[in-house]
């Protein structure tokens, strides 16, 4: 019986890590273009509530997913506008969006708080692969969004490294002056990738509501995983596959709560277990900085700095 | 010029461009033919780079028009410029350091396929290298290349994109004499191939060496347009500045005094972002200017920081006025009589958002409350004495032009009556008047008995003032010669590692 | 049409800054009005009620002031860090830990002490708590360069869980064993109560906050330490050149920031709730403080003004919930705060840059408007 518990936990880790992975990959794309978007938590939360409301109204969780993505993208568009066109301080803008997005989400979700969602997205077992002992249960008996997330991660990685557009993206983040001089539209590229980041964050939020906790619980629905996603981007050195791996790691921390309770471990109070993922994230970030070389190799050189062409 | 069958490759007609507080171009005309090497000569601040930026589409003119092959064009962005066959190699390279050479060359090229492939490029790059004498390795990472090699990448990049008009903005400022020669060969080869090359410079020797025609600019206007073969350096200098310029070299008029700055066996371990220094032995006497020549990235910044106390050497000692200050830090160095004027005036030497008054406090010894009234008076004094153009002592220093910022910086550093002065690239980017003023100030100090260490990546600057010249290569002093009668070739060779 | 931006070189004037701030508020109110209309509320009524409840009645004004006290302190906390280019997003958590430590001091040490001494000790414990909570992110930022944004923020969640644990999750020292139907904290002894203005809820914290603002202003603008801070925030390379001890300064400033947030928690405990009350403390004082500091452009006196305004907004928000005719959810005031900040951010563009708009394509014969002609700056 013990073996089954840890297998179940790892399977839960994959599921718990999926919204993290989606949001993180989205943020990687945004940051690679040179824009720091701290509003991930707000986008995820808004995506969650909109997904819930849409799925509830339409009776179709997939519509909910699309609606949630659109909500995240919309909020991201505001950030893109402020950061790229208005040259605002990107950090403050992101924070303002979190506050605004959280407020808006709570406002919209008030009438449906605590209400369970009728239609959720169910698991799909991949025939054949799911029969592999242990790994099959963990990886191939998941909901379809997990499989889609792998596709997203793979596409993002390929896009960034092997395509012409991906090269342009990375140039915007490393040296926008160069990109501009070579005829690329820095503004357009930044807008596009920040909004895509928002779409993915919205998807991550929607995932929480459509798959994991099929109900809206106010701000507790995401409980800060948007912030963990931001840390994950640094941890992954701005590379999508590493972000996926890191997401599952943190997902394990998030799922540990469940595992320990199931194993009858009651020594550690629930609140302390809940603290684990955040403390772990801090530890990882600090450890990363201590091993300085890796950190330096990662960040896009022009991250967070607005670009103005005729700055003299 | 005789009537041509073809219209000029590129023309500017009545171009006007203004920025806050300055008219950079006040009605400029320019015409360059196919196959011509055309120099645009002017001192720093004359408006040359602005004009070039307009020709490539980076800036849009307030008035006037640009014509390419006789057709007026409205260039809204560098993309338009490239589409029309106009490209520029900027003074600060437009390269992504983290990318490979190949990636930099194809960046933004609309002819590339969606999925990149390095191999396709290598053949084309090799071909261009052969034709114009520009050998580069497409797989190398730009960050690993020397400045000269990076410039070659910039040129190949433009050629690969098929430009017919290539503009080079102050290309030789960062090259060794040999690399400069190679560049001239390349320019001539491009012109022979029918390309129009516009060569922007403030260096008279190069303009006369490589160009067919010269357009001289001053204060945003075209002063004169001449055929190079029909003029000489002195005339060009006069056109450029509007008066006779003292091109003479300044040297010390008396024998040097005691050693005021001594480095013995100084070494610096190579850190992540620093070049290592090895076995530096250096002495600067009172009343002497020692110039350190070298190509960028060979340890100049590390050397100045070690001398100024901002970095602790891993071996060896630093003595200022006989006292051992090794590893004691910058405040001790200052108190012992050292002044440091860094190359980055407005980001390091001065704090850009802070006022002139507050910047004067930057290197004063501390007390709990800041002495603002004193500093404000001192600021007023400096503004008057050095004719600094500013809106007042409370103006943020980022408001100042390069020359004025340098004046404030120098005034501050010299006000403490230092015995040793370390200056890095003191006249870089300054117009002739300001540069003369700076050189005059340093000369004055030398005569008063200061020891001056002059570090510059511009060999001309080193040659213009130094009593002794040392060459720095990969963190070592590889050559030494008295300023008088020095052999530029030999120095250049040493700078490139040939010693 | 061509739009061009030119960086303004001269420092922005106070008038410009206030104008932008005021216009941002107006813009946000307009956006808010649209939102209210869309969700079925009458903006005029809502705004009128908000203004009335927060700023016109005696009860309203004093309540506004009472709510603004923690906002002043968290605003100062964020502002002092901003001045150095540091982002303390952890004021929320530092406030909680300040509350935890100060309530412990009140329960354990204060009984029997003379009141002034008790208050000083209890508030001091709060500051210590806040400083302790920011210590790890501060050291990591100063010595390792770790981004303080995420580290301070993540600790907010840890602090929240900790606070909840002490009251809801266990029979801790803070928990009142006598109350069994609902978990509640022990009431702190009267020695540790902050004196209050008359019958209002305005406590000594207001004076402390004002004093802190004055001290901070003096420190930042008149002392060497403040000068060093500003140089580091402006250009780290210049700070290094001037031999300013960068790491030590970063650490000190962040600890100060944490202490101020902790003080906010302590003042809530000793001035309002008189117990450790997780639900009463977890109302976004920390995050709102960041908005306050951003709107006030990190000026300590501006922080006081904006804190009172946003305090009024928050106060009005809670009152609106109870309106019988048009109950408006409290989230509206959070959204309005966010909207004001967003508009202010957009407005900053106009303070930092001059915008040129030209009709027609690029090169025309007409001169562009608004550009300063004249003598060019030179030697």
Radius of gyration of chain B: 24 Å
- Oligomeric description of these chains: heterotrimer
- The sequence of SSEs of chain C as H and E is EHHHHHHHHHHHHHHE
What proportion strand of chain C? under 5%
The CATH class name of the largest domain in chain B reads: Alpha Beta
What is the assigned CATH homologous superfamily of the largest domain in chain B?
Answer: P-loop containing nucleotide triphosphate hydrolases
Under the CATH scheme, the architecture of the largest domain in chain B is 3-Layer(aba) Sandwich
Q: How are the strands of the largest sheet of chain B arranged?
A: 6-7-8-3-9-10
Unreliable stretches of chain B: none
Assign a percent range to the helix content of chain B: 25-40%
- Alpha plus pi helix count of chain C: 14
Could you give the order of strands across the largest sheet of chain C?
A: 1-2
For the largest beta-sheet of chain B, the strand count, sense and barrel status come to:
6 strands, mixed
Net shape of chain C: globular
Count of individual helical segments of chain B: 17
The CATH topology of the largest domain in chain B is Rossmann fold
The shape of chain B is globular
What share of residues of chain C is helical?
55-70%
- The domain count of chain B comes to 2
| Largest interface, counted by CB within 8 Å of the partner chain's CB | B-C, 63 and 40 residues
């Amino acid at each position: 019986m013990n073996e089954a518990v840890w297998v179940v936990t790892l399977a839960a880790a994959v599921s718990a890590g999926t919204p993290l992975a989606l949001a993180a990959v989205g943020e990687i794309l945004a940051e690679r273009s040179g824009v720091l978007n701290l509003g991930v938590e707000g986008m995820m939360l808004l995506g969650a509530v909109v997904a819930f409301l849409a799925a509830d109204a339409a009776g179709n969780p997939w519509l909910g997913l699309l609606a949630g993505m659109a909500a995240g993208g919309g909020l991201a568009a505001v950030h893109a506008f402020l950061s790229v066109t208005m040259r605002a301080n990107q950090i403050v803008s992101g924070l303002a969006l979190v506050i605004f997005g959280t407020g808006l989400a709570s406002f919209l979700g008030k009438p449906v708080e605590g209400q369970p969602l009728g239609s959720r997205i169910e698991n799909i077992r991949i025939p054949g692969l799911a029969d592999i002992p242990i790994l099959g249960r963990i990886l191939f008996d998941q909901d379809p969004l997990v499989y889609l997330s792998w596709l997203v991660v793979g596409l993002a990685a390929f896009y960034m490294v092997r395509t012409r557009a991906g090269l342009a993206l990375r140039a915007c983040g490393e040296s926008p002056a160069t990109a501009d001089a070579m005829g690329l539209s820095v503004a357009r590229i930044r807008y596009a990738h920040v909004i895509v980041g928002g779409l993915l964050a919205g998807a991550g939020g929607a995932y929480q509501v459509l798959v994991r906790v099929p109900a809206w619980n106010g701000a507790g629905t995401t409980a800060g995983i948007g912030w963990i996603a931001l840390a994950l981007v640094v941890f992954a050195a701005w590379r999508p596959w590493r972000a996926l791996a890191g997401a599952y790691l943190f997902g394990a921390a998030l799922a540990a709560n469940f595992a320990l309770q199931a194993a009858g471990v009651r020594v550690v109070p629930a609140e302390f277990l809940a603290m684990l993922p955040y403390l772990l994230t801090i530890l990882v970030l600090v450890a990363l900085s201590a091993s300085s070389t890796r950190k330096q190799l990662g960040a896009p050189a022009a991250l967070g700095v607005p670009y103005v062409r005729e700055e003299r | 010029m005789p009537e041509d069958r073809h219209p000029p490759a590129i023309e500017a007609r009545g171009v006007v461009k203004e920025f806050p507080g300055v008219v950079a171009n006040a009605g400029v005309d320019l015409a360059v033919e196919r196959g011509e090497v055309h120099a645009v000569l002017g001192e720093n601040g004359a408006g040359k780079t602005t004009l070039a930026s307009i020709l490539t589409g980076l800036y849009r003119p307030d008035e006037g028009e640009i014509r390419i092959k006789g057709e007026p064009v409205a260039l809204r962005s560098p993309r338009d410029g490239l589409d029309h066959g106009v490209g520029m190699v900027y003074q600060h390279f437009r390269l992504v350091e983290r990318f490979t050479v190949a990636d930099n060359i194809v960046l933004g090229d609309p002819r590339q396929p969606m999925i990149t492939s390095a191999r396709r490029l290598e053949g084309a790059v090799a071909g261009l290298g052969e034709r114009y004498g520009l050998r580069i390795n497409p797989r190398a990472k730009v960050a690993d290349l020397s400045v000269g090699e990076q410039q070659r990448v910039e040129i190949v990049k433009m050629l690969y994109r098929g430009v017919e008009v290539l503009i080079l903005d102050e290309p030789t400022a960062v090259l060794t004499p040999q690399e400069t020669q190679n560049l001239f060969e390349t320019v001539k080869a491009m012109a022979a191939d029918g390309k129009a090359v516009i060569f922007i410079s403030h260096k008279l020797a190069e303009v006369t060496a490589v160009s067919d025609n010269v357009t001289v600019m001053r204060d945003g206007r075209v002063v004169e347009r001449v055929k190079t073969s029909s003029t000489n350096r002195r005339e060009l200098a006069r056109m450029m500045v509007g008066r006779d310029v003292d091109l003479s070299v300044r040297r010390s008029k008396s024998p040097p005094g005691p050693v005021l700055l001594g480095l013995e066996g100084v070494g610096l371990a190579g850190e992540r972002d620093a070049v290592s220094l090895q076995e530096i032995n250096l002495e600067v006497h009172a009343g002497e200017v020692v110039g350190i020549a070298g190509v960028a990235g060979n340890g100049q910044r590390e050397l100045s920081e070690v001398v100024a106390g901002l970095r602790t050497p891993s071996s060896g000692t630093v003595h200022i006025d006989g006292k051992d200050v090794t590893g004691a830090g910058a405040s001790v160095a200052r108190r012992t009589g050292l002044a440091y004027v860094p190359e980055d005036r407005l980001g390091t030497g001065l704090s850009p958002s802070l006022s002139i008054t507050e910047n004067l406090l930057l290197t004063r010894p501390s007390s709990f409350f800041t002495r603002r009234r004193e500093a404000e008076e001192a600021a007023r004094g400096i503004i008057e004495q050095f004719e600094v153009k500013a809106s007042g002592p409370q103006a943020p220093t980022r408001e100042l032009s390069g020359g004025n910022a340098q004046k404030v910086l120098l005034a501050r550093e010299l006000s403490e009556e230092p015995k040793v002065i370390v200056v890095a690239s003191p006249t870089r980017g300054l117009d002739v008047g300001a540069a003369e003023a700076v050189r005059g100030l340093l000369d004055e100090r030398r005569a008063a008995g200061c020891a001056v260490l002059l570090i510059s990546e511009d060999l001309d600057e080193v040659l213009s003032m130094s009593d002794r010249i040392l060459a720095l290569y990969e963190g070592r002093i590889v050559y030494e010669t008295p300023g008088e009668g020095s052999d530029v070739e030999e120095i250049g060779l040493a700078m490139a590692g040939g010693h | 049409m061509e739009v061009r931006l030119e960086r303004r070189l001269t420092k922005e004037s106070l008038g410009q800054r206030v104008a932008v701030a005021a216009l941002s508020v107006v813009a946000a109110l307009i956006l808010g009005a649209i939102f209210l209309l869309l969700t079925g509320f009458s903006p005029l009524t809502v705004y009128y009620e908000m203004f009335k409840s927060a700023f016109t009645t005696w009860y309203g004004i004093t309540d506004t002031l009472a709510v603004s006290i923690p906002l002043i302190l968290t605003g100062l906390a964020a502002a002092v860090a901003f001045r150095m280019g540091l982002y303390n997003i952890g004021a929320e958590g530092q406030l909680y830990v300040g509350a935890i430590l100060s309530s412990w001091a009140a329960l354990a040490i204060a009984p029997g002490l003379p009141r002034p001494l008790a208050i000083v000790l209890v508030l001091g414990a709060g500051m210590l708590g806040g400083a302790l909570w920011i210590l790890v992110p501060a050291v990591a930022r100063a010595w390792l360069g770790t981004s303080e944004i995420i580290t301070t923020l993540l600790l907010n969640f840890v602090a929240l869980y900790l606070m909840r644990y002490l009251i809801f999750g266990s029979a801790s020292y803070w928990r009142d064993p006598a109350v069994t139907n609902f978990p509640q904290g022990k009431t702190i002894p009267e020695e540790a109560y902050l004196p209050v203005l008359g019958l209002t809820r305005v406590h000594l914290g207001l004076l402390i906050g004002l004093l802190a603002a004055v001290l901070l202003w003096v420190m930042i603008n008149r002392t060497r330490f403040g000068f060093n801070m500003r140089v580091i925030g402006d250009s780290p390379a210049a700070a290094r050149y001037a031999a300013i001890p960068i790491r030590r300064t970063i650490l000190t400033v962040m600890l100060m920031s944490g202490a101020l947030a902790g003080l906010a928690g302590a003042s809530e405990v000793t001035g309002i709730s008189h117990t450790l009350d997780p639900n009463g403390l977890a109302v976004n004082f920390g995050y709102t403080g960041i908005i306050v500091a951003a709107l006030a452009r990190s000026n300590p006196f501006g922080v006081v003004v904006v804190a009172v305004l946003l305090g009024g907004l928050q106060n009005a928000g809670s009152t609106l919930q109870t309106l019988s005719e048009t109950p408006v959810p409290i989230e509206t005031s959070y959204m309005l705060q966010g909207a004001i900040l967003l508009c202010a951010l957009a407005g900053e563009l106009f303070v930092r840059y001059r915008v040129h708009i030209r009709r027609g394509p690029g090169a025309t014969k007409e001169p562009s408007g608004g550009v300063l002609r004249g003598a060019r700056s030179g030697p």
